[in-house]
Design a protein that fits this description.
The structure holds three protein chains of three kinds.
Chain A (H helix, E strand, L loop, with lengths): L1 E12 L2 E12 L3 E5 L6 H8 L7 E6 L2 E3 L4 H6 L2 E4 L11 H8 L12 H14 L15 H13 L5 E5 L7 H16 L3 E6 L2 H7 L2 E6 L2 E7 L5 H9 L17 E5 L4 E4 L3 E5 L6 H15 L3 E4 L3 H4 L7 H8 L1 H4 E2 L2 E2 L1 H14 L16 H13 L5 E5 L7 H16 L3 E5 L3 H7 L2 E6 L2 E7 L5 H9 L3 H4 L3 E4 L1
Parallel strand pairs in A: 3-8, 3-9, 6-7, 7-8, 13-18, 13-19, 14-17, 17-18
Antiparallel strand pairs in A: 1-2, 1-4, 4-5, 9-10, 11-12, 15-16, 19-20, 20-21
Helix pairs in contact in A: 3-4, 3-5, 8-17
Chain B lengths: L1 H31 L7 H19 L2 H25 L4 H24 L17 H19 L1 H11 L1 H6 L4 H25 L13 H11 L4 H23 L1 H4 L4 H18 L11
Helix pairs in contact in B: 1-5, 1-8, 1-9, 1-10, 2-3, 2-4, 2-8, 2-9, 3-4, 3-8, 5-6, 6-8, 9-10, 9-12, 10-12
Chain C lengths: L2 H22 L5 H10 L5 H26 L7 H18 L6 H33 L3 H24 L23 H5 L8 H18 L1 H11 L1 H6 L4 H26 L12 H11 L6 H22 L7 H26 L1
Helix pairs in contact in C: 1-2, 1-14, 2-13, 3-8, 3-11, 3-12, 3-13, 4-5, 4-6, 4-11, 5-6, 5-11, 8-9, 12-13, 12-14, 13-14
Classes of the chains: A alpha/beta, B mainly alpha, C mainly alpha.
Chain lengths: ~475, ~290, ~350
Amino acid sequence: MSLIEFRNITRQIGTCVACSDVSLLIEKGHIHAIIGENGAGKSTLVKMLGGLAEITSGDIFLDSKKYRPRSAQDAFQNKIAFVHQHFVLAEQMTALDNLVLSSNSDKSALTLKNSGEVLKLAEIQLKKFNWKLNLNKRVDLLSVGEQQRLEILKALMPNPDIIILDEPTAVLSPQESDELLEFILQLKLHGKTIILITHKLGEVKKVADRISVLRQGKLIETRDGAEVSIEEMAELMIGRRVVRESAQSIEAEAELLLNLARVNLKIHKGEILGVAGIEGNGQSELIQLLLKNFKKLGLHYGDITEDRLKLSVFGDADLIEHMLLKHKSIFIQNGLINKAKLKIETDQILKEWDVRPPEAHKPLSEFSGGNQQKFMVGRELYDKPQVLLAAHPTRGVDLGAQENIHKALMRYSREGHTVVLISSDLDEVLFLSDRFIVLNKHRAYGPFRKNELNEQRIGLLMASDNQADLKPYWVGDL
Amino acid sequence: MMDSIVMLLLLSTLRLSLPLLFAVTGGYFSEKSGVAQIALEAYLLVGAFTAATFTYFTHSLAIGYLSAALVSALVGQIFCLLVLKLKANSVVIGTGLNLFAMGLIPIISKVIFNSTGSTPSLDIPESLSLAPYAVLAVTLLTAFWLSEKTNWGLQMKFAGEKKLALESVGVSPTRRQWQSLTVSAFITGLGGAVLSTALSSNYSPLMSSGRGFIALAALIFAGWNLPKSLLVCLFFGFCEALQIQLQSNATISTYIAAEFIQMIPYVATLLALLLTKSQHPPAELK
Amino acid sequence: MNAKLISPWVGLVFGLVLSCGLSFFFGESPVQVFKILTTSFFNSKFDLGLTLFYTTCLIFSGLAFALPMKAGLFHIGSEGQLIISALTAAYLGTAIAPFQHAASVAISVFVIVALTLLIGALSASVIALFKVYKQAHEVVVAIMMNFILAALATWATVNKLQSPTSQNPETALIGESFQFLKNDFLKTYFENSPVSVFLFVALLCCVLLYFIENRTLIGAQVRAFGQNPHAAERLGISPKKILFLSLSLAGVFSAFIGLTEVLGNTFQYKIGFSPQYGFLGIAVSLLAQQNFIGIIGSAFLMACLHKGASDLDLETEHMTRDFSRVLQAIIIFSVAASYYIFNRKRDKS
């Protein structure tokens, strides 16, 4: 008899399907791992269980009873605890205060703070699992690992039956990760059911009883932890990939554009260099390093930023202004803005990239994500920079636009320009790149030529934490 | 001779710190819950005028204090409504509220007393001269109990530090902020009452003379820590006492002008901002 | 018209109605009060001149708030800056004694103006300094600076520059040759009211800023920084440059209020000469939604109301000139609220 049953669960927002027809059984007292790439739908699936995301269709059963949470409180009532990937802690308050708050409610406002009692309960929990944590310290003085413990302790305080851990080791050092895994096994010994979301295969192999693999919102397979190897998991996670024939082979004589000494990487003219890897494994550091080097060498570069809303879009500014801010020298004559030229050229980009609606005077923030991105790509390629930094260039873009962007990048590199493509979408990296590197835990591996590695090896490079798998390919740290 | 001067200085420090101690406690409740508070000046003025008026008509100091706090809290509702419900910027509304209090009080005063200047003198018996200290003691104890001992205090602080954590246990941060801002206006109103009934014996125009901002400075100087900010207020009160002493002492005041001593709270706060490594405003303060 | 543009005006009307309604509680006729508020500015040429003088100061203070606002900063430090720069102008006006020659006077005036504006710019840059190097909030620093500068000015006036012939705390009049605006055509036309050619300087500033904002790169960059500092930095726009530029310019506009007073109105520095122009500028700027040309209109409007309110003293039994502050406050409240109400409707649709 299984404790949790997902039956034909689908979640759809607009036309975007995050989870599609997932049916899954989770046994009581198991550690059930759910693995997959970024955007595979792992988090969405458990968020629906935790009452944090609405279910579009399908049902969840808890102990064979239908369960439809509307809020985190509903999940809490049903003894489900959720440990978020991003900590929900007040950093300038003590660990104990954070614990006390977690057991608070609207009604308890004018009652006395029962710090003593909470402290006692917390100490009991800590002792039970043989964990150490100074609860009187301020949270910002705790290490990341300790903050994580606090976050888990918060979840354990009401004594839940089911504990959902969303990528708990993403921010931890290897040693801290090991301690956490040890702890998860302890929880299991105490009869808890644990759902572990991760893309680190080594961890999964160590602790999971059952493993479910999600890919593009669909459940691919659920297997017993004991009978599936890391290699198989990697393959299931990545699937079979289409590889584009390289337009040209980058030979040794190709002209060098830039040498990134730190990661021992030579970037050539006319190539698309891919950077694969799960997000948060050193991508932002690599981007900073690249930008610094571009500036130092005075390279003329285009910059499709990794976070469009945060780093590219100005709230009320229209497309024309966005165009001006980027290509200032082209549109400034005698110190003044050449508005006519600006309008013509912006319209040209809108036409070329089929940005809809084609209104240059509309604020960029009022366009849909896909159209924003098309405009951004068009803008960055407008004056043919020597090198284009393209971070997640097709994120949030529909299939048609995606194809256009891919074609443009290929055409652009064939003209002799360089593209550095950073993407957590492995398909994209494999499809476009002439060569690629893989980032894992702030270490760079590669570079590899197309077809040099099979899917299994790539999956291992992205997700394994076994040094023996990785060592031969290591080129540098970020 | 020297002893009596020191004694006098200490006593007047204590007296002059009174309104600051109230205002800083009030400011604490607002800023800690995540709402920047530059309208303390308005609450002090409203409290001072209300206390003077009600005490004058009822001859009861107690009613004076109570009405000052209540009317100030009522005026605070304008701030709450605009900032919390209508999402206006707290600095803009705070500035507006200061103008509002400065403008409205003389008009009301004109209607009631037929004068925009000072209100009539109050005759407060000598026996009640310790009343403000008693009110302060009760206020500070209550404030401490509320913010440190109750879950409400914890929730109020989380509204200023991590709204998401508060929401995730089903408490509305906006509601806690609303309550906390009301407490803030209530307590600061008491400080106003002290101004007009203890430090002086009537309301005179703009008598808060920047004390609301000095209290804010003290709060920032102390890194948003209530006990520390109370100490800082005592220090700022000392500066004021010193300045008054100096003004009456011709020989010293030729060496150091009163204006420079007046400046001390503000300069000290800027220096604190400049020299200390990092300030720790509540994470969600805006 | 779209809701965003009309929302402050709806707020203004609502605020006016509310304020006049308030007068009912003081035993006055709201209609009468409304009439005084809205018509007293053209009772006479002198009154209109006075209103235009207020307009001048409010344009400058509106600009001093609006410009940093474009860069995403709340600048409430204008009051301190205008006080210290007025004092600077008054001091220099008494300290510099030019020869009888016109060129000498011209150079002296230039020096006075330049130094006054510089003091304004420098005193505002302090805020940028704290913001850039200590990440201190601009509002906190501005408040502290307001008090420090006011105290400095009072000290200097009373102890060093007190006019020997006056009982009031004020400096002596500036040199005769610097009082050339006393008899210019504007003053003559408006029956010696406080208005001066600084009105044209203010108008020019608005037009100039509007032009810079819309036709030059730096204008676009300041606005871009205000909307998204991270994205601006990624595009290579230096935060330091934007913060220092926008705040020191705001300081220059504050300083112009000092010049308007000292070179164009009273020819001396009087403690308390400003009815808190620095804060009234917030209402002016909010009403115009930081549009530099719109500020001309909203400043004139606020000036009319300010003038009208100061006439309430004479024209009504209970209302006093203090009503101007109430009016400004209620307008700030209702304009700020109208933004939310209108934008919420827009978001819903």
